[in-house]
Specification:
Distance between the termini of chain A: 24 Å
Largest sheet of chain A: 4 strands, antiparallel
Largest sheet of chain B: 4 strands, antiparallel
Domain YCII-related (chain B): 14-115
Strand content of chain B: 25-35%
Shape of chain A: flat
Shape of chain B: flat
Radius of gyration of chain A: 18 Å
InterPro entries (chain B): Dimeric_a/b-barrel, YCII
Number of helices of chain A: 4
Oligomer: heterodimer
Family (chain B): Belongs to the YciI family.
Largest interface: A-B, 79 and 83 residues
Order of helices and strands of chain B: EHEEEEHEH
Structural class of chain B: alpha+beta
Organism (chain B): Bradyrhizobium quebecense
Strand content of chain A: 25-35%
Number of strands of chain B: 6
Strand order of the largest sheet of chain B: 2-5-1-6
Order of helices and strands of chain A: EHHEEEEHEH
Protein name (chain B): YciI family protein
Distance between the termini of chain B: 22 Å
């Protein structure tokens, strides 16, 4: 099963406070462990929402608004994509993440083709697989 | 520059664990994905199961605490994402505007951090690791 681990933003990440060398080293070690265990597929950090934008859709029209966005929602500052046998295994890995107080992560299962049932016709399924294979080569 | 386009369908926070999808909408989204790929900007994309089947790990005190979904306080929940590589933020926005999204949906565009964004000291500390940030499709696959 594939999971996306969403790292929630907090006051520091939204203020653009960069991680300390110690935290970066601890995170590097944690990532190495997950890569060696064959669990980690990707992971990235995101710039604060002050540098981002949102596009909203209504009646065929789209409107763009620029960040920063209010912290009423669930803002994101980074993520991992991991592959484990179960949600419990994903949780076990993430309990070991070197976060201090005030951090929160969310673990969500990634859709696989078989989850879509009949909505995903054989043609669409084939297109999706081809797209992923080609996009991954970039 | 790499950008993450986060799909936030409003109402997804209270979606049931099992989703019913509209085949026509799936097809429209596939055509959009194909356009991103044909333009050479698509790195990867994924869809996420609803929050009802997810979990949160909180580090409020430094010790991990696990809570199972769904969460009543959740307001904006991610339904999926695209990772793209384009020349500018404006180009990323232009792509997001072409998405065949519904009226309740919103795409958030966020720039991905590169090692060059960090201080020299931090870059040095990270260079001792083979996979400091992860990255797509390089050493990891």
């Amino acid at each position: 099963m594939k999971f996306m681990v969403i790292v929630k933003a907090n006051k520091d990440t939204e203020a653009g406070v960069m991680p300390s060398t110690e935290l970066l080293a601890a995170m590097g070690k944690f990532n190495e462990e997950m890569v060696k265990a064959g669990v980690m597929q990707a992971g990235e950090g995101l710039h604060p929402t002050s540098k981002g934008a949102r596009v909203k859709y209504a009646g065929g029209q789209s409107t763009v608004s620029h960040g920063p966005f209010s912290p009423t929602g669930d803002l994101v500052c980074g993520f991992w994509l991991i592959e484990t046998r179960s949600l419990d295994e994903a949780i076990d890995w993430m309990k070991r993440a070197p976060f201090g107080g005030g951090s929160e992560i969310e673990i969500r299962q990634v859709f696989a083709a078989e989850d879509f049932g009949e909505a995903l016709t054989p043609e669409l399924r084939e297109q999706g697989e081809r797209l992923r294979a080609q996009a991954g080569k970039k | 520059m790499r950008f993450m386009m986060l799909m936030i369908p409003l109402g997804y926070e209270s979606a049931p664990a099992k989703l019913e999808l509209d085949p026509e909408r799936v097809a429209a989204m596939m055509r959009y994905n194909q356009a991103l790929k044909d333009a050479g900007v698509l790195i990867t994309l994924e869809g996420l199961h609803p929050l009802a089947s997810g979990a949160r790990v909180k580090f409020d005190t430094g010790e991990p605490m696990v809570v199972d979904g769904p969460f009543t306080e959740a307001k904006e929940v991610i339904g999926g994402f695209w990772m793209i590589e384009v020349a500018s933020r404006a180009e990323a926005i232009a792509w997001a505007k072409q998405c065949p999204a519904s009226a309740n949906e919103m795409i958030e565009i966020r720039q991905v951090q590169e090692m060059a964004d960090f201080s020299e000291e931090v870059q040095q500390a990270a260079s001792t690791f083979e996979h400091p940030q992860g990255g797509w499709g390089k050493a990891l696959r």
